[in-house]
């Protein structure tokens, strides 16, 4: 079982449990950017100048050369990348429209959808 990506937020990606999780997902540095990624896992991690994780992006549609993320959606969101399934699992978002947003105690999750308004393109996790 792979580590919980929400637990990376605010942690130094190159130390301790965050480093272990990084290795579990096969994250590698993108040359010339403050980004680590695993196109195979559908995961992208943005870090600040001190290598602290600021944002985690989970890709669901194979966009930008990423394979679809196949893990559990954070916050008990299940595994099916559909708006209706997210709403059923997580309840109504606090913000809706082109993107939905759910606040959790230690992170915020934003869902971005395809033009059909139902198909999940990516989830953006931040603080």
Q: Can you summarize this structure?
A:
The chain is of the alpha+beta class and 127 residues long.
Would you spell out the secondary-structure blueprint of this structure?
Elements: H1 16-25, E1 28-29, E2 35-38, E3 43-47, E4 53-59, H2 83-90, E5 99-103, E6 108-113, E7 120-126
Features:
single chain; 127 residues; alpha+beta; 7-stranded antiparallel β-sheet; 2 helices; 7 strands; 14% helix; 28% strand
- Based on secondary structure, the structural category is alpha+beta
Elements, N to C (H/E): HEEEEHEEE
**Stretches where pLDDT falls below 50 for ≥5 residues?**
none
Determine the mean pLDDT: 91
Q: What is the tally of helical segments? A: 2
Write a structural description:
The chain is α+β, with helices and mostly antiparallel strands and 127 residues long. The protein has helices spanning 16-25, 83-90; strands spanning 28-29, 35-38, 43-47, 53-59, 99-103, 108-113, 120-126. Strands 1-2-3-4-7-6-5 form a 7-stranded antiparallel β-sheet, with no helix packed on it. Strand 2 (35-38) and strand 3 (43-47) form a beta hairpin. The longest helix is centred in the N-terminal third of the chain and has 10 residues, at 16-25. It is globular, with a radius of gyration of 14 Å. The protein starts with 15 loop residues before the first helix and ends with a strand.
């Amino acid at each position: 079982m792979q580590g919980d990506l929400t637990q990376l937020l605010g942690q130094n990606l190159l130390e301790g449990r965050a480093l272990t999780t990084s290795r579990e997902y096969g994250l590698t540095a993108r040359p010339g950017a403050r980004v680590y990624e695993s196109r195979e896992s559908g995961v992208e991690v943005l870090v600040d100048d001190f290598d602290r994780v600021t944002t985690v992006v989970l890709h669901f549609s194979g966009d930008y050369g990423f394979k679809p993320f196949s893990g559990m959606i954070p916050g008990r969101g299940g595994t099916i990348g559909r708006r209706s399934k997210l709403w059923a699992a997580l309840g109504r978002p606090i913000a809706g429209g082109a993107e939905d947003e759910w606040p959790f105690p230690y992170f915020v999750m934003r869902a971005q959808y395809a033009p059909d308004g139902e198909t999940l393109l990516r989830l953006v996790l931040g603080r």
